[in-house]
C-alpha cells in the first residue's frame, strides 16, 4: 500500500487537504506501527519517491504562507494537514539517520521560521505547535546535520535577518545563537503554564533535547540554561493548581532534568526528599503510565 498511497500524494497539491491529510497519516503510521525490518523498507520506499518529497516540501512551506484571518477553536483541515506533514518529516529524519537510507531528494527548511513558530506562535493551534516541536527535536538530536535536510542559511554568509555569531559560545552552538536559545526556553516555559497534557509532554521533551544538545556543544551554556532562576518559579506555578502533588509527569521530568544537570538552585535536597516521600506513600498501581515512567527516570537519576 505504501507505493500507491505515496504515489497518490506526489500527484496532489497542498490544497487537496481532504485527500492528503489521511494519506500522510497513513504513511506516518506505516512507519511507526510496523516491525523494524519492515520499517527500514518503508523508509526506503518513501525516501525514493521524489514526487512525495517535493509535495512535503510544499506542505512545510505552507506553514508560513497560510494565514487564515482568525483561528477557530477546532483544528482546520489546513492545520491538520500541516500537523501531518511536520510529523511525517520528523519521522523520516529520524529513521533515515537510523538506517542510513539513501536520499533521492532533499528538503529545505528555514531554521529561523521553525524557531519563531514556537517562540512567537501567532495563535497556532496546540497540535501544530506540538508537531513542529517534534520536528525541532529531530533536528536537535541530529545536531542539525542530515542528508535529508538542508537548513536554509547554513554555509552562507550571515545576513541581516540571521543572528550573527557574537561570541565563541554562538560559534560553538551553530546554527543556533545563544539569544535564540534563551528565547526558545522562555517560550517553552510559557507554554508549560497552559497545563495542557499533550502540550506539556511535547514541551518537556523539547527542553530535554535542547539541553542535551547544548551540553554536547558547550557544557557551560547547558548548565547556564538549566540553572536559570525562572525555572524555579515555573515549578511553583505548575504546583499551584488543584493538584499540588509532585507526582505529575511534567513536574517529575523537569525535576529529573534539573537533577541531571545539577541545578541545585532550582531543586533542593528538601524537594528531592518530598518527591521520594510522596512516591513511598502513593499507591503505585493507581499512577498513570506516564507518571510511573517519569518517576522511574527521576529515581534512577537521583
Automatic annotation (TrEMBL):
Which superkingdom is the protein from? Eukaryota
The GO annotation for biological process reads: meiosis I
Q: Which InterPro entries match?
A: Immune_Signaling-Apoptosis_Reg
Check the record and name the PANTHER family matching this protein.
Answer: BCL2 INTERACTING MEDIATOR OF CELL DEATH, MEIOTIC DOUBLE-STRANDED BREAK FORMATION PROTEIN 1
Q: What is this protein called?
A: MEI1 protein
Q: Which organism is it from?
A: Erithacus rubecula
Amino acid at each position: 500500500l505504501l507505493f500507491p498511497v505515496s504515489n497518490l500524494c506526489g500527484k496532489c497539491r497542498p490544497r487537496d487537504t481532504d485527500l492528503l491529510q489521511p494519506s500522510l497519516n497513513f504513511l506516518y503510521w506505516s512507519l511507526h506501527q510496523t516491525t523494524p525490518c519492515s520499517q527500514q523498507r518503508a523508509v526506503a520506499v518513501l525516501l525514493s519517491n521524489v514526487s512525495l518529497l517535493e509535495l512535503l516540501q510544499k506542505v512545510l512551506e505552507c506553514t508560513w504562507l497560510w494565514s487564515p484571518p482568525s483561528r477557530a477553536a477546532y483544528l482546520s483541515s489546513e492545520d491538520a494537514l500541516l500537523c501531518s506533514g511536520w510529523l511525517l518529516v520528523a519521522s523520516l529524519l529520524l529513521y533515515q539517520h537510523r538506517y542510513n537510507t539513501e536520499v533521492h531528494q532533499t528538503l529545505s527548511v528555514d531554521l529561523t521560521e521553525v524557531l519563531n513558530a514556537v517562540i512567537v506562535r501567532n495563535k497556532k493551534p496546540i497540535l501544530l505547535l506540538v508537531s513542529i516541536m517534534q520536528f525541532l527535536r529531530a533536528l536537535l538530536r541530529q545536531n542539525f546535520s542530515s542528508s535529508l535536510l538542508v537548513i536554509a542559511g547554513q554555509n552562507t554568509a550571515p545576513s541581516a535577518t540571521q543572528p550573527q555569531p557574537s561570541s565563541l559560545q554562538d560559534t560553538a552552538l551553530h546554527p543556533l545563537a545563544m539569544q535564540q536559545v534563551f528565547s526558545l526556553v522562555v517560550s517553552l516555559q510559557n507554554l508549560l503554564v497552559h497545563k495542557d497534557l499533550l502540550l506539556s509532554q511535547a514541551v518537556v521533551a523539547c527542553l530535554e533535547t535542547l539541553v542535551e544538545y547544548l551540553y554536547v556543544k558547550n557544557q557551560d551554556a547547558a548548565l547556564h540554561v538549566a540553572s536559570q532562576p525562572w525555572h524555579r518559579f515555573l515549578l511553583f506555578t505548575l504546583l499551584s493548581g488543584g493538584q499540588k502533588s509532585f507526582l505529575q509527569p511534567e513536574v517529575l521530568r523537569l525535576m529529573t532534568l534539573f537533577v541531571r544537570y545539577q541545578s541545585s538552585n532550582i531543586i533542593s535536597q528538601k524537594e528531592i526528599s518530598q518527591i521520594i516521600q510522596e512516591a513511598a506513600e502513593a499507591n503505585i498501581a493507581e499512577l498513570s503510565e506516564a507518571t510511573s515512567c517519569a518517576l522511574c527516570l527521576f529515581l534512577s537519576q537521583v
